[in-house]
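Ligand-bound model needed. 6-diazenyl-5-OXO-L-norleucine.
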Amino acid sequence: MRSLFLFFLLLGCSHQVRIVAPTVVQPRVAHESVAKSEMVTAQGAGTTRAALSIFQRGGNIIDAFVAASFAISVERPHSTGIGGGGFLLYYHRAENKVYAFDFREIAPLAATATMYLTKKGDPQPLLSQEGALAVANPGLVRGLFEIHRRFGSLPWKETVAPAIKLAREGFPLYEELHEALEDRREVFILDPGARSTFYTSEGRTPNLGTTIVQENLARTLELIADKGADGFYRGPVADAIIKTIRSKRGLLSYRDLRTYSMVERTPVKGSYKGLQIHSMPPPSSGGIHVIQILKMLEKHPLRSLGPQSTEAVHLTANAMQRAFLDRASYLGDPDFHPVPTKELLDERYLSRLSGSIKTRKAMKADQLKAIPLAYESSDTTHFTIADRAGNLVASTQTINGWFGSAVMAEGTGIILNNEMDDFAQKVGVQNLYGAVGGQNNLIQPRKRPLSSMSPTIITKDNGPFMALGSPSGTRIITCVAQTILNTVEFEMPLYEAVAATRIHQQWMPDVLKVEAPFLTPAVEAELREKGHQVVHEKLGCSIQAIRKTPDGWHGVSDPRGEGLALGLN
Ligand code: DON
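Prediction:
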């Protein structure tokens, strides 16, 4: 995987400044929209249109959410899919309440803490990244089905229909999918289903613009449309999943599939400059750390220092570093280990953390005591929806790495996730990518691996203000926090807030990543003076944001990607 490779490279030479080509910025018109009634921002035009078509048929925001989830599963098969899982944050305007739903994958019942270790106890990173052993029990279909049953208004079948059409009629091969197919080709063409769906008869990646049709997936989606969640977790689709997994010596069983359950959780919440930030609680680390970063910075005069000034970047990077130290020390699945959420978000604790930030010099990672993070790879997707009633949806969904485990359940078009790689294989030992994991994130049967996905909703005066989220592993947390800072602290218009240069510091590795279009050379030189190891690197985030306007909504799909922001009046 390209991003894994880059990460690995950077670990090996983090003292150097690496230059990567500036990200291509797509035309602004597809990425920004203003509308009175409904708004959708998603990482694919087919998905945005699928969600809008549901509103046009009289569906509500949850119907649109389900339609977008199935459509994005088709349109970004390298990022997400019904073989994966995710999180939803849902702001219900009439109740003035934010719901959080967790349909993340869980470890199979037969999983063990040592399943990826050699007899000598050495980790084997590839086993949790590729092949049937990397597959965790998928949660997406169960989650969509339960959420729709509770809040949806259109018949279930109608919400699956746009995805079936997209899979059957296809869409033109776009740049990122092309890159992912090329990147994973050697492994992925070994799977006969993947080879016949995505590659030419000679096993080559098709040209950009080639129509990608997923007929097997269309048939699977029809079964799900007819039978609901049972169309996935029981019957012929379950048979195909288990047959494939068994033939490749994976662990997932019928019992795993039958017993998967979604969990409703209480969102984490924090105030920032008079706004209420609501985000995803554990097993995501995202919400806690987005709020921590904002709270640590709240009392610092960032606005007067200026966006992307040396001092503002220095303070922000230090706040990120502090938050990631806590992530490594405390976070995991709360159903298995107590996570001190309240303590981590306690105002006095955060003010102590904030006070410990040195304004003159960067803190070295080894001056701070804790154990480093489990590595997360760089694919996933996020979409955001708003409706005329003031409801908001922010949902991040994933199969983890590009094409997940690179295993397709035979004949179904389903690409199975490699979410097991979000667990720590072992405490304190570096994996292939140079990261080590924490005690609370070791593998246990039915446990959820630690996530960084941070679907976030902001309310103001008991009404909607903004909703956003992004893909890109640990970078999600810092990209979401920076977009909020840009909007609220620096008062940037939404497009500029999303498009601006971003930084990322995650404590380990101890580098300050800066993405195109970069900071000025003078600011970067001053940051190095302060002790930051500045590297240029693509961060991979793709923020999908919607902000309330006096007349309706302003939507922005990150110009770094091929998404679409579009609304209805
Ligand atoms: O749950 C997580 O944090 C990761 N599995 C997400 C992976 C991801 O965001 C990849 N993004 N592009």
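Residues 1-170+213-569 form one domain.
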